[in-house]
């Protein structure tokens, strides 16, 4: 008798998602927080879409609303003080904001997973990593403790943690920073979700480990054909892995573009400023450019374009009228797919 | 771990010797004389008193008396009471089980109610029920246990006549109910506050956000991830508090006439029975030492970041 080899565990092909609806669509999302100083408007009308297999990078300074948007998608905002006065978050065409808490819980972790910035504080210090990984299988799939542990070891192998079987009972503090972030990734990956939100996944890591972790994330994303939202303020990280970029400022998207286009020809003065402030070898010895001023206080966002007090090109219209995110075209009027800029003077910025 | 335990056990020896010595010296320098106390108001012959004192070794210097006492102690002899001629070991054997029962009763009460209240308040910091708990615990903390004791006695025994004012049978759990509540209420307030603060603080921790993002049911997020972290300081407090409950029982036992160590030590003090006082106090010291060792070991079990070498 021959023993038929069990087919290797190949991730099941995803159900066809090209039926017109993207995986995730955020529509005119607003989030505000009640604070002692008044209402802080953290997100003011964000729109973006992510399809299966696509990587969207959300770029912005601290306080630009990129993390808050992600938390709103995950449904892990602290409410109160947080509030979503307006907007829709469509996951496969269904508005998650209208779902019951239980329906949303079932999506969390299983369909949409999140990777957090600081893996040490984001993992529970008193539970073994095997337990924390296995919990995904026990809660969502109802596996036994033993099976869950076996799956946890598989997962740790999957994210290339050496000696996974021996380390499954170890605690988060016994791992190095890079290994801990791999565990976070493994946890997000456990149930092969459709979408992963990575909130500054490499910020707490040193540069060599950053590259390893990003490569791993990109590799796994390709393999499972997942959608990925990569939140970062590191322009270097974005260039290698992202398909498209959304730049956020004061709770709004100020520019969207396919990744390489943005680097070549930014269409918003803020993006231009960000790119100019990357240290470059050929400008060694010169003073590093910095965008002057500070991000606005979210309880008192400047009227008109929120960037106007810091913008080198600001005119009177910038102080009175909020620029809409308008399509960006070539000089001759041919459309540039996927590009948009919320600047009154995008033409001058991109072509000037 | 084994070496750590061994070291801790060895450390207990000087602590035990030191504490017995201190208590012994306090009894020694206390004015009054057990033999005189024995004679009471009746006229007595000074030579008789002197003879008894000589027989008991009370005319010897303090270091001889202490050495003599320790020598007996190491042979398992707690000494004998002067007035009643009872073995101190017998008195302890009678009184300790009662106090242990009372303490355990109070302990269970404060653990269940204290942690329960703390959890209820801690899950919603700054809500009405949180403020309510803070007020209640403030009242309990600032009220001395004898005030609370007499108050309870007045309400439940004299006004409502639900119970007898004092405990009739120190072996009965029903009778010990009220004393246990009075005894446990101070610690209960501390436990509730500690649980509440610990929960409220951990509620904002990053790993809690992760637990929610994993799609775990709220029951599990709170019951496993939050509680497991929040109860670590509470357990530490509970362990060291067992000793406090036993000493706190002295007042409570007095109010409710419970025949435990509190009563025994109080009576012995008034009659200047040094052997009884030192014996009971030393036992309480030992209970303290062992519970704190137990807590330290438990701490390492609860928090994997702590390791003893």
Structural notes for this entry:
- The complex is a heterodimer of chains A (352) and B (309).
- Chain A has 13 helices and twelve strands.
- Chain A has 352 residues and is of the alpha/beta class.
- Chain A folds into two domains: 24-242, Rossmann fold; 269-280 and 289-351, no CATH class.
- An eight-stranded mixed sheet of chain A has the order 6-7-8-3-9-10-12-11, sandwiched between helices. Chain A has a four-stranded antiparallel sheet with strand order 2-1-4-5, with helices on one face.
- In chain A, a hairpin with a 5-residue loop joins strand 11 (326-329) and strand 12.
- In chain A, helix 7 packs parallel to helix 8 (207-224).
- The N and C termini of chain A lie far apart (75 Å).
- The relative contact order of chain A is 0.13.
- Residues 6-13 of chain A have low confidence and may be disordered.
- Chain B is an all-alpha fold and 309 residues long.
- Chain B has two domains: 2-74, no CATH class; 94-270, MetI-like fold (Orthogonal Bundle), CATH 1.10.3720.10.
- Helices cover 78% and strands 0% of the residues of chain B.
- Chain B has helices at 2-29, 34-39, 46-56, 62-74, 88-122, 128-142, 145-159, 173-203, 206-213, 218-256, 261-270, 274-302.
- The longest helix of chain B has 39 residues, at 218-256.
- Chain B: The chain crosses the membrane at residues 12-30, 102-121, 133-156, 176-194, 277-302.
- Chain B: Belongs to the binding-protein-dependent transport system permease family.
- Chain B: It comes from Streptomyces kebangsaanensis.
